[in-house]
Amino acid sequence: MAAGGSQDDLPRWATLVLLPVLNVTAALLLSGLLVWFIGEDPVEAMQILVEGAVGYPEAIGYTVYYATSFVFTGLAVAIAFHAGLFNIGGEGQAYIAGLGVTLVSLALFGWPWWAILPLAILAGAAFGAAWAFVPGYLQAYRGSHVVVTTIMFNFIASALMVWILVELLIAPGQQSPESRSFSPASVLPSMHAVLGLVGIKMGSSPLNLSVVVAVLACVAFHVYVWHTRWGYELRAVGHNETAAVYAGISVKKTIVIAMALSGALAGLMPLNEVLGVQHRLLVNFTGGAGFVGIAVALMGRNHAVGIVLAALLFGALTQGGSELSFEKPAITREMIVVIQGLIILFSGALENLFRAPLARLLRGA
């Protein structure tokens, strides 16, 4: 423990690893009690959940597929948080970014995926950044709180996209609000097809090449935040705006840039869902991934590696929860949401519940 530190200070490894493990364990134990209260065996339920998430190749593919979307939105929340901003508008930013990805895919109908992918990345990132730029500007130059404005922009994005799909992009002869399908040549290849080309067998699943983009986004996030001058300015503003001003950093400019980058990262999420799986634009294709990204960033301590691990956990809960609700109808999808909520609770509001006892235990050891 550093001299002058609090008596509850923990080693860095304990804060980054041991404390999150304890929080997740507590959430799962409490979830087990809830399962027991409704008359089901919590041990059996956990076995089904784990088996459904990682027990066979297809399940692993689905888990990583869900995690890919959560990585994008988790990174979006994290980069804003490093600047002291709480961007809870990732859902709306990803939704609007889906429009950009769709417009590129429809405009370049018939082009191969490798030609469309770079343009789709740019379009998704640009549309997401533009949607996040406005709350960032209002925060920096008008004093409007970014939490309030991003919430409002989520609702605006939802209404706007429904109108666009119903009135402008709906496929001819189609009653449900969705665009026409993309060209088969333009969709992202699935990972089981790509790996099959090099002799690696993998179960069929929606997992696609956007997972590679997610890995590259994690690397870029880490390098930008921790190894560039702009990342230093971002963190300086987040830690202490007054000190940042004295250091010659433009706080307003940094806030706007942080929100734009946050929106751009959220704007990569449609690559997975729209370009990789659905191959058309659907209503509510985000499926709450923007909100899950908040929990992923909190649990991952706003670090790229932590975000990947947290995203995999929530991906496993999503996939394993589907299997569990199928095998045990008494454990509904809502119960799975409750389990996710408990993990968010222990990783967020109650993240320091075990800090003091753990510090005393480690000092005693």
Characterise this structure.
It is a single chain. The protein has 365 residues and is an all-alpha fold. The chain has one domain (41-349): ABC transporter involved in vitamin B12 uptake, BtuC, CATH 1.10.3470. It has 16 helices and no strands. It is globular, with a radius of gyration of 21 Å. The model is unreliable at 1-7 (pLDDT under 50).
CA-CA gap between termini: 13 Å
Shape: globular
Overall radius of gyration: 21 Å
Q: Pick out the low-confidence regions.
A: 1-7
Main β-sheet description: none
CATH architecture: Orthogonal Bundle
- State the helical fraction: over 70%
Question: How many domain units?
Answer: 1
Total number of helices: 16
Strand residue percentage = under 5%
Q: Round the mean pLDDT to the nearest integer and report it.
A: 90
CATH fold field value: ABC transporter involved in vitamin B12 uptake, BtuC
| CATH class designation | Mainly Alpha
What's the order of the H and E elements? HHHHHHHHHHHHHHHH
Strand tally is 0
Instruction: Name the structural class.
Output: mainly alpha
Short key terms for the protein model shown above:
disordered N terminus, 365 residues, 16 helices, mainly alpha, ABC transporter involved in vitamin B12 uptake, BtuC
